[in-house]
Amino acid sequence: MSRLQIIGEKINGTRPHVARAIRQRDAGVIRDLATKQAEAGAAWLDVNAGTHSGAEPDDLVWLIETVQPVVDIPLCLDSANPAAVAAGMQTVKRTPMVNSISGEAQRMDGILPLVSEHNCSVIALAMDSAGIPDTCDRRLEVVRRLMAETRSHGIPDDHVYLDPLVMTLATNAENAQITLDTIRAIRQEFPQAHLTMGLSNVSFGLPARSHINRAFLTLALAAGLDSAILDPLDREMMAALVAAELVLGFDNHCLNYTRAYRGGLFARPGVKATRA
Amino acid sequence: MSKKLVSAIADMREEEALKLVRQMTAEGTPPMAILDAAREAMGIVGERYEKGTYFLPELILAGEMLSQITEVIRPELAKMPEIKRHGKVLIGTVKGDIHDIGKNIVTFMLDVNGFDVRDIGVDVSPQKFVEAIREFQPQVVGLSGFLTLAFDAMKETIEAIKASGLREGVKIMIGGGQITDQIREYAGADAYGRDAMAGVSLAKKWLAK
Predict the structure, then answer these.
(1) Does the distance separating the beta carbons of B151 and A206 come in below 8 Å?
(2) Interface residue B190 vs chain A (CB under 8 A)
(3) Which of A169, A207, A221, A258 is the one with CA 20 to 30 A from A199?
(4) How far apart are alpha carbons B38 and B7 in whole angstroms?
(5) Tens digits of residue pLDDT in B54-75
(6) Which chain B residues are within 8 Å of A50, Cβ to Cβ?
(7) Dist CA A12 CA B184 (whole Å)
(8) Which residue ranges form the domains of chain B, and what is each CATH number?
(9) Chain A residues touching B56 at Cβ < 8 A
(10) For A258, how many CA atoms within 13 A lie in the half-sphere containing its CB?
């Protein structure tokens, strides 16, 4: 398993076929996504009921009850709705993570007491009601406010997964650099806190996105990212991850790398393995 | 020279395009001729984007070129009578949502296609939409939103437009990554668009009547 804590992103009700499965209470579809992501190396499973109506608490509880019997990894309750998160807390077997709070007072007030009460982890986005700051310094200011809040609720720093956020390179060629700078600055100032992120936004609006996503993951790992919200079934991404962790010295005796090789992660149809 | 300007803009040669515009202005080319060339170039950029030859960065650079060109010819343009447009479209991202890329693309495509577009930004409250409709008097209103939260904000916005007595005077379209016909019905909009061109087609259809 990678050092990077992967939060598997696929059980997300904003994706049409997952939304359909939730509506029709089709447990098979959801369980399949759960087991496949766990087998592929996810450390957490994100569950997002994606509904916009009052059904979200019920839908989230159903997702949790559906997933738990088939996987051993903890869940990441993905909702901005305190009622849904509270309902989820009553249902989970393992201490979950909550996805997410931000610098918006409304989101902190609803969620942080639950995180504190249940001693769980929380993802905190480096943005507030004014939006996503466009400099590293201003994102760091939001992060400082977030950390002050989580600490005042008695939440230990290593239960906080800070998300430095990334905007697409398509609108500003420096957007990834801003995020990498933010990662380094957070690492320095809050060494106990985790750093997580959804990667794919970096390439929005551009062609051949997977190349960009992989390059960005590699650089973010070097900067100090230690968790990511991604699709662990994306073999190219996982291969890039295993190779990058090896190069960064995170893989003792290269065991993860050789294990991934033996497991066929690097195999391509028609390409024969060679020692040369 | 306007042919050269068209290809300089369409092929993303920013410095050359601006140099040409300055040169043409100095030589007394009417500002409308420059704008026509810019619009033709924007049309080409839009087509290339639709075909998948160009991507978001090219749209953004084209938009920047257009505003720089407008800046250069503004003194001349101020002396001209107002440009005729198909009609007015008011657009914004609804309250609670700050996604602006989709909205910006739609704004760009509407502009290129000859609409007078006013973009009132992101996280726009229902009240601000109502005020902007009163003031700008558009025939079409576009509500954008990517988050699921936006669905409720769209509904609220359309209700506020209704309550202020302005609903009859405008056609309302909604858009954003996750919009479906179900959401359209929930929000009370007239139509929804899957992509930027769908927004243009809707506006054209409504204004043709």
Answers:
(1) no
(2) no
(3) A258
(4) 10
(5) 998 998 898 889 888 888 887 8
(6) 148
(7) 21
(8) 2-77 (1.10.1240.10), 88-208 (3.40.50.280)
(9) 168, 170-171, 204-206
(10) 5
| pTM confidence score | 0.80
Instruction: Choose among A14, A131, A206: nearest Cβ to B98.
Output: A131
- b/e map of B8-41 (b: 16 or more CB within 10 Å)? bbbeeeeeebbebbeebbeeebebeebbebbbbb
For residues A195 and A162, the answer to whether their CB atoms sit within 8 Å is yes
Domain ranges of chain A: 5-262
CA separation for the pair A99, B196 (Å, rounded): 31
Which of A131, A173, A207 faces B55 most closely, judged by CB atoms?
Answer: A207
What DSSP letter does each residue of chain A carry, written as one string? --SSEEEEEEEETTSHHHHHHHHTT-HHHHHHHHHHHHHTT-SEEEEE----STTHHHHHHHHHHHHTTT--S-EEEE-S-HHHHHHHHHH-SS--EEEEE-S-HHHHHHHHHHHHHTT-EEEEES-BTTB--SSHHHHHHHHHHHHHHHHHTT--GGGEEEE-----TTT-TTHHHHHHHHHHHHHHH-TTSEE--B-GGGGTT-SSHHHHHHHHHHHHHHHT--EEEE-TT-HHHHHHHHHHHHHTT-SGGGHHHHHHHHTTTT--TT------
ipTM of the complex as predicted: 0.75
pLDDT tens digits along A163-218? 999 999 998 999 999 999 999 999 999 999 999 999 999 999 899 999 999 999 99
Q: Which residue of chain B has the CA closest to A204?
A: B56
The superfamily (CATH) of domain A5-262 is Dihydropteroate synthase-like (3.20.20.20)
